[in-house]
Amino acid sequence: MSALRRKLGDEYQVVSTSASGGGLPPPRSAPRGKRQRFVDKNGRCNVQHGNLGGESSRYLSDFFTTLVDLKWRWNLFIFILTYTVAWLFMASMWWVIAYMRGDLNKAHDDSYTPCVANVYNFPSAFLFFVETEATIGYGYRYITDKCPEGIILFLFQSILGSIVDAFLIGCMFIKMSQPKKRAETLMFSEHAAISMRDGKLTLMFRVGNLRNSHMVSAQIRCKLLKSRQTPEGEFLPLDQLELDVGFSTGADQLFLVSPLTICHVIDSKSPFYDLSQRSMHTEQFEIVVILEGIVETTGMTCQARTSYTEDEVLWGHRFFPVISLEEGFFKVDYSQFHATFEVPTPPYSVKEQEEMLLMSSPLIPPAVSNSKERNSSVECLDGLDEVGTKLPSKLQKITGRDDFPKKLLRMSSTTSEKAYSMGDLPMKLQRISSVPGNSEEKLGSKTTKMMSDPMSQSVAELPPKLQKLSGGGGRMEGNLPPKLRKMNSDRFT
């Protein structure tokens, strides 16, 4: 125990769940009554079919399978009874032929040729049939050529004997070679465990193979049997739900050489999404495990089954390691196959953990949208383009470059976007921007300066006459004629 604690830590406690284990069983809150299981631990299904009515005749239509499915005591009884009745019937037929021909009264007459030599009563007829059926020989009793009905009966006996032998011997051979006993050497852990693995809450159980011969193409499946009621009010007493044990990743295909731990990750798609340690005391469910594979020695398909009820699922436990490295081989210790130990596990369900994670995460502030301002600026640019195309060519030359108003609006829109984007900055940067040295007045002066520079450049590019009319770079609207002033004001409005 001390070595185990040094290896795993002081917070882990070893718990043996087997009857022969040295540890104590895990404590339970309150003992429950015996649950009615759908599948026993040995794999037998607790289902009985009743009130079949006229459907019972279907068993006779597949009589061979019905005979194979019977228990061994009934198979042996049918085997002995069939041979006994067949032998007595055929022996009676030979005795009837001897009686009808009068061979029984003339058996000791040397001048008389009977149908079967040395048959003078029923025991002698029975011995003749056994010698013929078992091909022992005709040392003392034999068929003569004076009896055609005996030859016909002999042919019928050979055909009927072959059919009976093939049916009964074949049935017994299949019964003996059935892989049900191979399933006895496939082990399942007595309990299932729920704990964290790779950061996810996982349901785990263990499977093992006691023989050295492998199970070819071994595959495992899990079914959850749980009662539920549909939204329409229909009650389903044994609703079957699929538990994913690696079907999407191929982990359900097992290389069953050493004991393996089968895992079912509990997520939003799992039926155990709402299962917590507290709710396990009130839930009622049954997990059916089905292991299928091909027996390597016989090539026949074998299936092993077991089940786990809610009382057999241990919350916060993990299986004890059973594989150790020896000199030149790996050793499996099956004495610890069912043993588990406690590990720190949150008692909450996956759904509750996700809700707590969302509540503890910081809220993300919504970003300020400048789509309206951008759209308005784009609309202004489009309007100016339309007005510019309507002006005469002379006025377009007077105003300088064609994209002059468009540049002004673009520069003003960028400044407005910068002003609006201050709300998206963190609090420290907003405080820095609110310092008097970085006030809005300076920003406004910069924008006006940027807007005035293109104006001065455009006036400088005008012809000398128009520069004189503008008064050396001032506003030229006051010196323009009334018609041009009106047209220019309509353009900018």
Automatic annotation (TrEMBL):
GO biological process, one term: potassium ion import across plasma membrane
Residue ranges of domain Potassium channel inwardly rectifying transmembrane in the record: 39-179
Inward rectifier potassium channel C-terminal domain ranges (all copies): 186-356
Cellular location(s): Membrane
TM region positions: 76-97, 151-174
Keywords: Ion channel, Ion transport, Membrane, Potassium, Potassium transport, Transmembrane, Transmembrane helix, Transport, Voltage-gated channel
Protein name: G protein-activated inward rectifier potassium channel 1
Organism listed in the record: Ploceus nigricollis
